Amino acid sequence: MPRSDSRFHGTAGSGPCRHANIDFSPHRRALTVTRGARYSSTTPITVAEGVSVERVTPPSRLFGANGLRTGPDKRIYVAQVAGSTISALDITTGDIETISAKGSDIIAPDDIAFDVDGNLIATEYMDARVSVRSPDGTSRVLRDDLPGANGITVHNGRLFVNECRIGGRLMELPLDGSAPVVLQDNLPMPNAMEVGPDGLLYYPVMGTNDIWRIDPNGGTPERVVGDLAGPDSVKFDAAGFIVSTQAGSGQVLRIDPRTGNREVLAQLAPGLDNCTFVDGRLFVSSFDGAITEVLGGGDSKSVLPGGLLWPLDLTVGPDGTLYVADGTFFYQYRGGGELEVVASLFSLNSPGYVRGVVATGVNEFVGATSTGQVVTYKHGPEPETGLIADGFDQLYGIAVASDGSIVTVDAGTGRALSVRGGQTEVLASGLQRPIGVAFSPDNAVLISESGAGRIVSVGAGGVDTVVDGLETPHGILVRGNQLLIVDVGLKALIAVDLVTKARQTLASELPVGVPEGVVAKPLKGTPPFSGPMGPFAGITAGQDGTVYVSADAEGSVLAVRIAA
């Protein structure tokens, strides 16, 4: 996107309300968006009198960073699965331009390549597609029957693609859209690949932790090197050596393709995804959106800092630590510090792709994962994960009652569920995309029904409306008799008195949801790592009364303080 210094702050005076019973009060609060951030708005945040908003974490500039490719213009093109976005990074200025934005034709791009005519070709992992985007910005789908389409490369005018799944194929795709030519099948999760100086096609196989090569014209594949740690990319340096990122270990390896001997160019954090060269300089991507230059001799330099992909749900532990569920990563934040990874998809005894989370003790949690599981997780030197229930569709918010029963919501099936003692009880069905869950002061179960624009209570008496006239409510939080609602459609934090039903907008024009005019296309997930990747703007509160909100549009956590 163009260079930006958009500002979120309050505006003088109050304008017309979307709903007559919502009170907008004027107050100013300035929040500056990082240049080239992934989300910007010319409309300032407005907060009510006595309310302040500040960022706990900085906004992310990308929606994560997956496939990398150096373009004809020497910029680094970055595919971002979670944001359905492709951006171009100028490594000299640091400017980022959005090439294909969320809501456009290309969905969940995972890897990219360029042909000799400057066409950008992208694999769309979740939609089993490969699309071609021409320099004039128009796109066409080349194939839509390639489940797990991921690794991609162009060599001598020929296009090669593989499927990163169990039983995946490695194939050549004719550019006229005709049937693929399969070079190898039944591969356990091949990934980003490239043709080497010897004319052979080299590709990593994550499921077996090795790198293979094959003649692009067909033949018997040959194993080059093994005993790796989640190799997810293969590129070649000027000397003809393989450079490969290791998702599991965070190592960047240089491998002799003749002998298999290796050296560690850099030791970074786990979660690396891909790499590319610009005039001999090596750059690698990380799932959290970081772009790092590998300098050699074990040294590296940050080009673009990592950040949050969403974030999703939030919870505060008994010791005051803030925890952030961000899908791939689970973070902790202690006041004045930085986000620290507690667990990830690559860590020992990982809780999985966590979307909803609640702290149940010091370093103890109950979570709802995007793969349809309710789990326990204990953080520590020897982390432990336990399975409570399985087989759900799209779990979101989760809460634990005083009697230990767990309540969660399944947006895919429209159900509110209670889990206890290994048994699951359906509290309500037929809900329209339920997202958030909380308990009222009298222990009634409250659900945010995002598809119906309301908050309901569910129980033996059925489903009753508590708050209506909303747009797309997500996270909900009860403090005393006050219900706080994050509405990503209204882009607002709304307070409702559960006794008097009085309603007030505490903050509006928040960086949540999607930008105005954008219709986000569903993210179907990346099996076996995650199920459908729906956003979730969560909310929680600390012991000091600070309210934390997931600013999922810009990738930050907001602290909202409300005067007593």
UniProtKB/TrEMBL annotation:
SUPFAM superfamilies: Calcium-dependent phosphotriesterase, NHL repeat. Residues 60-286 form the SMP-30/Gluconolactonase/LRE-like region domain. Gene3D superfamilies: TolB, C-terminal domain. Residues 1-21 are annotated as: Disordered. Signal peptide: none annotated. InterPro entries: 6-blade_b-propeller_TolB-like, SGL, Vgb. Transmembrane segments: none annotated. This is SMP-30/gluconolactonase/LRE family protein. It comes from Nocardia bovistercoris.
